[in-house]
Design goal:
repeat, alpha/beta, Phosphorylase Kinase, domain 1, 7 helices, kinase, leucine-rich repeat, globular, Leucine-rich repeat-containing serine/threonine-protein kinase, Leucine-rich repeat, LRR (right-handed beta-alpha superhelix), Transferase(Phosphotransferase), domain 1
Length: 441
């Protein structure tokens, strides 16, 4: 975090990244003194509603964050920024995007929680777009030109007003992570799933925070008063309290519905209760046993759609095969329940020292029940591609000097990953077929 005083004094000359939070209502022109070096500009959490007409002076700018400001339209000047590839305007009041407001080189666009009802017809010219976050808008359709966004890998469409899912979307060659819950054709108004019992929050004491995601905060909890009907439940549990009406992936009610509809599987974190009390919505889960850790880390600004791993991380081919088999079995189960996960990533997978998998985080999950059979099959194969990406990422940790790199098993896993990631959606194997092939390795 920097200050206006530092900026205006010249102290920040030559920096590549600037972050200012100072209740700004006007763009500080002193930022232009950094034009030769500035690559990342973060002016989120201010009161800005416009950018100057000469904003494109920031000729080295690659990444711009202006979330939680007061913009009502996307500044058209952005389209003239020569190197701008990542743009974030989450939680503004944007209802309009001009035809040429986005640079052709846009790679990552975040417009979550705005007021967009349409995207410009020219949107398809963004042929380098890989990641697109549009959850929490008022979109009633998507422009047909988006079929030209052939590089698109991740798209969030949850909590909009879409009346159907476009057929061309499901055929995009690289699409791997798709979420669309909370639209008229898929939204669950109220979770009525009774597969796990309702638990009053007064019966639980929330203790230490165990984690936090886009949709909620997870706490360790113990019983203050355990009703007789809950005596079979463990003494300590994990409780996820959802944050509010909408998240970056959609509505909490949809996440809860997808989690409960999926049901039980040995590689899923068990759901044992649900909380519906006033405005509080929560999920009660089994505590993850000690010894489990995240398989990977979230994507970075550089990797965009692909996970990262800590320095020195390495998995044997046997471990990668074991992880892939468990994930294929888990995802086969989910799709049999007509639920897609939408976020098949190493950072959402937990493993222990034996590489046993626990999978969770249904924030981007979608209920496929209202899709046609053909559409459900395409969703199945889209998620197969995501698993192929995961296998490829894990194999990428094995360097050429490692003897396993030259082995037949490495080649077989690489070929399976390739089959999962084919551009033709219909040519990819099913999870059942993939599980068979992994079991033969």
């Amino acid at each position: 975090m920097h200050t206006l005083k530092q900026l205006e004094s010249g102290e920040l000359k030559g920096i590549t990244r600037l972050q200012l939070v100072a209740e700004l209502t006007e763009f500080p022109r002193a930022i232009f003194t950094l034009a030769d070096s500035l690559e990342i500009l973060d002016l989120s959490d201010n009161q800005l509603s416009s950018l100057p007409d000469d904003f494109d002076q920031l000729s080295q700018l690659r990444i711009l964050f202006l979330s939680q400001n007061n913009f009502t339209e996307l500044p058209a000047i952005l389209g003239k920024c020569p190197k701008l590839e990542m743009i974030g305007f989450k939680a503004n009041q944007i209802s309009y995007i001009a035809e040429d407001a986005l640079p052709d080189c846009t790679r990552w666009l975040i417009l979550t929680d705005n007021q967009l009802s349409h995207l410009p017809p020219s949107f398809g010219r963004l042929t380098q777009l890989r990641k697109l976050a549009l959850a929490g808008n008022q979109l009633v359709d998507l422009p047909e030109s988006m079929a030209q966004c052939q590089a698109l890998e991740l798209i969030r469409l949850s909590a909009n007003h879409l009346r159907h899912i476009p057929e061309w979307l499901l055929d995009l060659p690289r699409l791997s992570w798709l979420a669309f819950a909370g639209n008229p054709f898929s939204h669950v108004e109220e979770c009525l799933n009774d597969s796990v019992p309702m638990i009053h929050p007064d019966n639980l004491h929330l203790g230490e925070q165990l984690g936090q995601g886009a949709s909620g905060i997870i706490y360790k909890a113990h019983w203050l008063n355990k009703p007789q009907s809950f005596q079979h439940l463990p003494a300590e549990v994990a409780v996820k309290i959802f944050k509010g009406a909408i998240t970056s992936d959609g509505y909490p009610a949809d996440e809860l519905d997808c989690c409960l509809t999926t049901g039980e599987h040995q590689n899923l974190i068990p759901a044992i209760g649900q909380i519906h009390h006033g405005d509080t919505l929560g999920l009660v889960m089994s505590l993850i046993p000690s010894g489990y850790r995240n398989l990977g880390l979230p994507p970075s600004l550089v990797t965009c759609t692909r996970d990262t791993f800590g320095a020195g991380t390495l998995f044997t081919l046997d471990a990668i095969t074991h992880i892939a088999k468990q994930m294929a079995a888990t995802l086969k189960h989910m799709h049999q329940q007509q639920i897609s996960h939408g976020d098949i990533y190493a950072h959402n997978i937990m493993i222990d020292d034996t590489f046993k998998v626990l999978f969770g985080d249904f924030g981007a999950a979608s209920n496929l029940n209202h899709l046609s059979h053909c559409q459900r099959e395409k969703m199945h194969r889209i998620e197969v591609r995501a698993l192929g990406c995961l296998i490829e990422d894990l194999l990428g940790l094995i360097q050429p000097e490692n003897p396993e790199y030259q082995s037949d098993k490495y080649q077989q896993l690489a070929e399976l990953s390739f089959l999962c990631m084919q551009d033709s959606v219909d040519s990819r194997p099913s999870f059942s077929r993939l599980l068979e092939q992994l079991s033969r390795l």
